[in-house]
Amino acid sequence: MLGSLCRFIFFHTHIAKEYSIKNYRGSLHIFMNRQHIMVKALVDTGNRLYEPFTGKPVCLVEYESLKHCLTGRDGHYYVRPIPYHSIGKEHGILWGVTADKLIFQNQRRKIKRHGCIIGIYPGKISSMGEYNAIIHPDILKSNVCGRSRI
């Protein structure tokens, strides 16, 4: 019985955790201003950032990863301020842009959305370089930004 309990604890703490992490990581394809980039992304269930005017959830993407998509035909793009609060930053502002299309894909699912808001993060999201974007969990729900699951 002790052996069975040890196997159960090992499975629960190691294998189930690894399975769960894989479900929350994937690739994020961003289509904007006739450009396409792909970044490594993490779905952050603690992300509760919404754009205040439209009420749409906000994904965070590193500026360095996103900068190629930011210039339009005339060299400009429309940005909007997104206020936020976090630990150590009571009244912060991120700049946000609207993506033409986002596709999140991992081993379990492929989800396509149109018109989602991207917050431009000025630094590194992951110090180890494991991901370059944080996806708001509401974006994975149907009809939040635009079209549903493909």
Q: Taking Cα atoms only, what radius of gyration do you get, to the nearest Å?
A: 18 Å
Give the helix level as a range of percent. 10-25%
Number of strands: 9
Q: In DSSP terms, counting alpha (H) and pi (I) runs of 4 or more, how many helices?
A: 2
Chain-averaged pLDDT: 80
Instruction: Give a short account of the largest sheet.
Output: 9 strands, mixed
* End-to-end CA span: 46 Å
Strand content: 35-45%
Describe this structure in a few short sentences:
This protein is α+β, with helices and mostly antiparallel strands and 150 residues long.
Which terms would index this structure?
150 residues; globular; alpha+beta; 2 helices; disordered N terminus; nine-stranded mixed beta sheet
Q: How is this structure best described in words?
A:
By secondary structure, the chain is α+β, with helices and mostly antiparallel strands. 17% of the residues lie in helices and 38% in strands. The chain is built from 2 helices and 9 strands, in the order αβββαββββββ. Strands 4-5-8-3-9-2-1-6-7 form a 9-stranded mixed beta sheet. Strand 6 and strand 7 form a beta hairpin. The N terminus is likely disordered.
